[in-house]
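=== RUN LOG ===
request id: a7f3
mode: sequence -> structure
chains: 1
length: 224
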Amino acid sequence: MTPLELADRRMRLQMQVEHSKGSRALVLHTQQETANSLRVAKESLEFLQHEDDLARACAQRGREHVRTSLVPFVTQALQMVKGQGYEFDFDFTFRRDSFETDLRASNGARWGDPRRSFGGGVCDLVANSLLLAYLLAYRPGLRRFALLDERWPNLGKRDVPAVAKFLRYLVRQQGFQLVLISHQDEFYGCADLVHHISQANGQSYALSEHAEQEPAVAILPRGL
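=== RESULT ===
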């Protein structure tokens, strides 16, 4: 082999060595970039998981706050009207990408949906108690006012006095101001001011019965 051929071979070997070094450096660089990308992705996933866990925890606390704010009030209403054996509760169930509430009531012997299992009187009482409980829990700084327009259509006559007593309790102890519109005469006894509405010759007339104290409850029967 001539000196020129030896020099050429030596140069080719040197180029192969340099190319090999460059390839190894490129591989190491690529591996390092891949490792960094995986680390960043892992950290992002951990952050998102943490955020998701935090959001779930906040939502759970919010749901528990709603339960603790509403359940005792509705249970108290049921017990004052229907008896000590009654209870109320509800759960949140995740359906169709959102939370829904499953209402439950008990008469001391069994639990069931208050809209179907215990008659319309219990359904009316639960519905109105939830409304009033919401006002009590989430409007603490405001004077609590509620207009109950024919809100007790399924309530039995024997339960009306107990409901009236419960409403009087709300007025005296919880600072509510209530206006009831009803055909049920049994409610009149709990009112501080009663308006009897009648109609003659195409016009409506109101006859008022005033009490000595400042009105807190008014009954507006819509008799035509």
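=== NOTES ===
The first strand starts at residue 87 and ends at 95.
The chain is about 50% helix and 25% strand.
=== END ===
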